C-alpha cells in the first residue's frame, strides 16, 4: 500500500475522535510512528487500549499526556469540548513540531482562534464530521486557510476518508455544512420516529412498526447508494400515476417541506453563529 500517514495524536478521543481513530486502524493504512490517544478517564482510555498500533493514555493517570502526545505527532486532532480548546492549545503550543498539522473536531471554534494560539509554522484545518462516521459512512466537511499546502490537505483527506466521504469547503460554509450533514442524521431519525408513530397508529405493534420503517429507510438509502440515481428519479419509480404513493407525496408536498427544511437549516446556522460568538 503506497499511502501512509504520519504520526497521529487524538487529544480527546471520545465518540467522534474515537470513531476516526478506529477508522484509521481498520483501513490498514500504515501510520509511521504510531497513534497516541488521550482521554480524561482510565475507563474511556481502556476502550481504545486494545487497538493495534495505538497508545491510549488516561489523563487522570498521566496528567501531561496531552503534551507528550502532541510533541510526538505530526498530525494532532483536537477533539475536546469547544470550551476547553483555548486552554488546550495554549498548553500544547510549545510542544508542537514546526511542521505539525492541527485539525479541529470542535464545533464553533474558528480557524482564527487556532491561529492566534499556535505557532505560525503550524498548519491548521477545521473539520466537521458527522455521527455515521462511527460506522464508516460519515461525511466530513474540511476547511483550511488560503495557502494551506496540498500535502496537509491530502493527509487530512486520507484521514477522514477512512470513515466516509470528504467535502472541502471554505470556512465560511462550515456552519451551513453542519446544518446539512452535521445535524442531518437527527432530521432522518426524526422522520423515522414520526413514520413509526404513524405505523403504530395504523395497528402495527412497536416491533413490527420499527421493522417496517427502519428497514425502509436503510433499504432506500442502500438503493440510492447502489444505483447512483438521482433521488427524484427513484421517487418517481415508486410513484405510479394516480396511485397511492402519488396521493401521499402530494400531501407532503402541500405541507411545503422545501420551505420547512430551509427554515430548519437556517435555524441551525443561526445557532452555530450564536455559539461561535459565545452566546
From TrEMBL:
Looking up Pfam families in the UniProt record yields:
F420_oxidored, P5CR_dimer
Q: Which UniProt keywords apply?
A: Amino-acid biosynthesis, Cytoplasm, NADP, Oxidoreductase, Proline biosynthesis
Kindly list the positions annotated as binding NADP(+): 11-16
Q: Which InterPro entries match?
A: 6-PGluconate_DH-like_C_sf (IPR008927), NAD(P)-bd_dom_sf (IPR036291), P5C_Rdtase_cat_N (IPR028939), P5CR-like_CS (IPR053790), P5CR_dimer (IPR029036), Pyrroline-COOH_reductase (IPR000304)
What is its pathway?
A: Amino-acid biosynthesis; L-proline biosynthesis; L-proline from L-glutamate 5-semialdehyde: step 1/1
Q: What reaction(s) does this enzyme catalyze?
A: L-proline + NAD(+) = (S)-1-pyrroline-5-carboxylate + NADH + 2 H(+); L-proline + NADP(+) = (S)-1-pyrroline-5-carboxylate + NADPH + 2 H(+)
Q: What is its main location?
A: cytoplasm
Report the coiled-coil segments: none
Its EC number(s): 1.5.1.2
Which compartments does it reside in?
Cytoplasm
Transmembrane stretches in the record are none
Task: Provide the top EC class.
Answer: oxidoreductase
The residues listed in the UniProt record as binding NADPH, with positions renumbered to this chain, are 66
Q: Which residues form the Pyrroline-5-carboxylate reductase dimerisation domain?
A: 171-275
Its GO CC terms? cytoplasm
GO terms under biological process: L-proline biosynthetic process
Q: Report the residue ranges that make up the Pyrroline-5-carboxylate reductase catalytic N-terminal domain in this protein.
A: 8-108
Gene Ontology molecular-function annotations: pyrroline-5-carboxylate reductase activity
Q: Which HAMAP family match?
A: P5C_reductase
- Protein family per UniProt: Belongs to the pyrroline-5-carboxylate reductase family.
Its function, per the record, reads: Catalyzes the reduction of 1-pyrroline-5-carboxylate (PCA) to L-proline.
Name of the protein: Pyrroline-5-carboxylate reductase
Amino acid at each position: 500500500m503506497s499511502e501512509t500517514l504520519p504520526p497521529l495524536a487524538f487529544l480527546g478521543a471520545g465518540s467522534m475522535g474515537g470513531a476516526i481513530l478506529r477508522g484509521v486502524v481498520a483501513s490498514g493504512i500504515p501510520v509511521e510512528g504510531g497513534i497516541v490517544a488521550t482521554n480524561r478517564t482510565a475507563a474511556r482510555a481502556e476502550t481504545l487500549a486494545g487497538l493495534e498500533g495505538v497508545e491510549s493514555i488516561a489523563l487522570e493517570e498521566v496528567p501531561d499526556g496531552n503534551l507528550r502526545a502532541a510533541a510526538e505527532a505530526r498530525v494532532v486532532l483536537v477533539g475536546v469540548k469547544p470550551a476547553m480548546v483555548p486552554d488546550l492549545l495554549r498548553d500544547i503550543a510549545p510542544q508542537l513540531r514546526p511542521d505539525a498539522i492541527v485539525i479541529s473536531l470542535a464545533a464553533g471554534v474558528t480557524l482564527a482562534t487556532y491561529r492566534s494560539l499556535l505557532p505560525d509554522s503550524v498548519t491548521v484545518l477545521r473539520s466537521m464530521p458527522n455521527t455515521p462516521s462511527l460506522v464508516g459512512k460519515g461525511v466530513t466537511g474540511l476547511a483550511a486557510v488560503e495557502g494551506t499546502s496540498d500535502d496537509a490537505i491530502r493527509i487530512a483527506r486520507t484521514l477522514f476518508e477512512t470513515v466516509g466521504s470528504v467535502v472541502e469547503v471554505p470556512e465560511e460554509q462550515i456552519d451551513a455544512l453542519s446544518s446539512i450533514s452535521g445535524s442531518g442524521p437527527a432530521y432522518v431519525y426524526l422522520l423515522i420516529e414520526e413514520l413509526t408513530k404513524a405505523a403504530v397508529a395504523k395497528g402495527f405493534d412497536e416491533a413490527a412498526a420499527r421493522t417496517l420503517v427502519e428497514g425502509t429507510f436503510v433499504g432506500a438509502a442502500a438503493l440510492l447508494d447502489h444505483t447512483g440515481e438521482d433521488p427524484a428519479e427513484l421517487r418517481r419509480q415508486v410513484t405510479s400515476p394516480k396511485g397511492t404513493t402519488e396521493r401521499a407525496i402530494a400531501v407532503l408536498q402541500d405541507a411545503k417541506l422545501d420551505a420547512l427544511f430551509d427554515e430548519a437549516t437556517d435555524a441551525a446556522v443561526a445557532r452555530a453563529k450564536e455559539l461561535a460568538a459565545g452566546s
